[in-house]
Amino acid sequence: MKIMNVELKPEESPIRFIRKQEFGKRLQSLLTQKGWTQAEFARKVGIGRDSISTYIRGRVVPNRATLEKMAKILQLSDGSELYPNYEAEGIMQDEMPEASYKTVRGKPDMMWVSINQELPSKVAMKIMQLLHGSD
Fold this sequence. Notes:
Layout: E1 2-3, E2 6-7, H1 14-34, H2 38-45, H3 49-56, H4 64-73, H5 86-89, E3 98-104, E4 107-116, H6 121-131
Antiparallel strand pairs: 1-2, 3-4
Helix pairs in contact: 2-3
């Protein structure tokens, strides 16, 4: 699906996409009001300028700790002034489950699997056993 000529990731809802765009506009507006460049703000936050650029373009949102640090530097009460309902939406990238699957070139019966998800220890150990061929 495309919104504003941008292809959405399969797991991303149009509402989430729009909220990231709004976050970016809000951040840009606050930087303009303060008279700060993206580079200046990035130095104050302690992150790369490219990160600020991706936030402003609405590509991604910062993790909870960075969002709160940004809010403090911008003299806001908390991160919800930058990104309303951040917690409730489970938008935190560092906590979002992700999975990707890719075929292995030249080995049609094999795949690369990458999973980033919080799991109970027993489940994680079972996965490790499966991966290493032991039961």
